[in-house]
Structure formats: C-alpha cells, structure tokens
Write a structure and sequence with these properties.
371 residues, alpha/beta, Rossmann fold, 2 domains, 7-stranded parallel sheet, 6-stranded parallel sheet, 42% helix, elongated
C-alpha cells in the first residue's frame, strides 16, 4: 500500500440486521489496520448492532423496503428512501469520502445512489447466494460486485463479479483454529441455538419441546445456550428446567462466536454471516432457512454446508419439535458423526474476504486518483 492510499475516508453502508452489519464491521477492522478511516452509514435498526463498529465517523439515514406491503406501505418506503438519499448527499458533501461500499439491505441503497451522483466510486458486497434486491439496483453502476458464495444467482451480465467470500469479524477469525472438542462418553454435550440477529418465535418453541423428547440420559448431559426473544426468555427457561436440562437463555449474546466455538452442535437460521461463521470455526449444524427470505436465499446459503455433509437442513414449513427431535436424536447419540460434520464444515466458505475487499477498495481509490 502506498502512502497516497492511506488515511482515506471510506463509507460503508449497511443496516437492518446483523447479517449486513457484521461483514461491514469486518471490512472496517481491516481498513483500520491499513491506516484508513471509516464512515459508517446505517439506519436505526442497524445501529443496534453497531455498538462495537470501529467507525471514525457515522451517521444514520432513513430507509425502508418497498418490496412488501400495499400501495400505502410502498409509498411510505419510497419517501423514506428519498429522505435517506438527501441525508446521504448532504453528509457526503460535508465529509468527502474517497470510496464507498454497500453491503445490501435498503439502507445501502440511498447511500450508494448518493455516491454515484457525486462521482464517488463504490462497490457492493453480496453476502448471500442470491443477489439481493437492493444490490440488484446498484450493481450496474458499481466498480465491483463482490460476493460470498461460489454461485451468485439473479446477477445481471456484464458486471465485475468477484468471489471474495464473506468477511468475518476479528472475533470470528481469531477462533478459526479453535479445535472441535469431542464429546466424551459421559461428558457434557453443548448446543447453541439462535434464530438470527433478531430472534424468531419458532426458535423459542420447537427446540425446547424437541429436546424434552430426547432420552433422559441424553438430556442430563445437555448444556444449552439459547437466544430467545425478550418476552419468551422465561418460558424457554421453564421448559428446559422441566426437562432437566441445563440452560442459559438471553435475547442476545455479544460473544456469540466464542459460544459457537465451544458448541458441539449449532441450531440456527441460514443467514450468510451465520453460514460463514460456522464454516470459519468449523461446527456441525442443523439449519432452518427463513421461509420469507427474499428469493429463498437462505436455502441457497445452506447448500454450502449441507452439500458437504456438514449440516442438516430442515425447511421452516416442516420445522416442528417432531422433525427436530428426529434429527437431534441420532446426532447426539453418535459423537463421531458430530466430529465428521465439524471437519466437513471447516473452510466451506472462501477465507480472507476482508483483505480481498479492502484490496478492491484501495484499487478503486487508486483508479480514481489516476484518472
């Protein structure tokens, strides 16, 4: 890296969920290591997951999805996006970023449109195996369209597609060498359950009942860490206590990567960040793709692990305590299979994404300076 490339302000736009924020956070960490400055652009929802985001500067914009709801909802979303665009234009004129990267979700749309209008070079990163709708509106004007999985569905032709993998936060990268601890004959079996960064009610009900159906000798060995929504924590705790299962239940775990590294089995959604982190750390999983995910992209994400024999996929429409119990029982009774699945998961998503993305950012800054 040349001195001319250092100390540049780079805008990263992401919001809505942790699934968009966490890859942006990983890139921010890499850019900071290279001496760059980071401007975070997000919305109120995304800000909830950005407490530890290493931004030198930040601002919030309004954004909403125009893809759902009736005419009134769509009209309100359009107004929100327009307001976000004007905010981004004003803030970019004030702060003058050298480049920008959008990580999908509708908060990235007005930010990248503002960059385009101001002649600021930008790229997009798609975490999922299907190009998201916001990114579809941005890729043709982007300097690059980086993506996480080998296959990127619904991507238009004649764009600069580059597979880089999905960036993982430093906390995840630090655990990439954490060994899988085998389950001993009478030892504890540790299960981590979470339903995405915003939780999910079906992840509060079905797992507790499924675990309660397991044989008593298995239940006595279980140690469950379970993310549940605020109003459901007490019921989840009570369910485990009635089944004689040790548990820790909370609405959010800030140290989720560490808990994943300690787990013998992960039960979760199939968001891109989740799949990437499971692959980086190397853990067996039972995956329940979100049924309402746009273009069913979570099912596509899950294939990265299921096709390697590293995960069992249970479609949401058939996800019940019965189907989960049927999947759990043979896994927990066969520690060797858990080890094999952990080994199969390791490295199934391309590593080094944060560095590859940072290289692309610096390339577009250099190209702009040379123009």
């Amino acid at each position: 890296m040349t001195m001319a490339l250092s100390d540049q302000l780079i805008a990263l736009a992401a919001g809505g969920t942790g699934g968009h924020l966490f890859p942006a956070e990983a890139l921010a960490q890499e850019l900071k290591r290279r001496g760059q400055r980071v401007l975070l652009v997000t919305d109120a929802r995304g800000a909830r997951y950005a407490e530890k985001f290493p931004a030198d500067e930040r601002f919030q914009i309004s954004a909403a999805t125009p893809s759902i709801g009736g005419p009134v909802a769509k009209g309100m979303a359009a107004v929100s996006l327009a307001q976000g665009l004007f905010t981004a234009l004003g803030q970019f004129k004030k702060r003058r970023p050298a480049a920008a990267v959008g990580f999908g979700g509708y908060p990235s749309l007005p930010a990248m449109k503002a960059a385009s209008l101001m002649g600021i070079p930008y790229g997009v990163h798609e975490q999922n195996g299907v190009l998201g709708r916001a990114n579809r509106l941005l890729v043709k004007g982007a300097a690059f369209a980086a993506h996480g999985f080998p296959v990127l569905e619904k991507a238009p032709a004649n764009i600069n597609r580059i597979e880089v993998g999905n960036p993982v936060r430093d906390a995840v990268a630090a655990l990439s060498d954490a060994p899988f601890t085998p389950v001993t004959e009478h030892g504890a079996i540790k299960i981590l359950i979470f339903g995405g960064s915003q939780g999910a009610s079906i992840f509060s009900a079905a797992p507790v009942r499924a675990i309660a159906e397991l044989p008593l000798d298995i239940r006595k060995r279980l140690e469950v860490v379970h993310q549940a929504r605020d109003g459901e924590v007490a019921d989840v705790c009570s369910g485990y206590e009635a089944a004689g299962v040790k548990c820790e239940v909370a609405p959010f775990f800030a140290d989720l990567p560490e808990r994943m590294a300690k787990a013998h089995l992960v039960i979760s959604r199939a968001g891109a960040s989740t799949i990437t982190e499971i692959a980086a750390i190397g853990r067996p999983s039972i995956l329940v793709p979100l049924a309402i995910a746009m273009d069913d992209h979570q099912t596509g994400n899950a294939r990265a692990l299921s096709e390697a024999g590293a995960a069992i996929v249970l479609p949401e429409k058939t996800f019940t305590e019965g189907t989960l119990s049927e999947a759990l029982a043979p896994l927990l009774a066969d520690p060797r299979r858990l080890e094999e699945m952990a080994a199969a998961a390791k490295g199934r998503v391309k590593a080094g994404a944060a560095a590859a993305l940072a290289d692309l950012v610096e390339e577009i800054i250099s190209a702009r300076a040379a123009a």
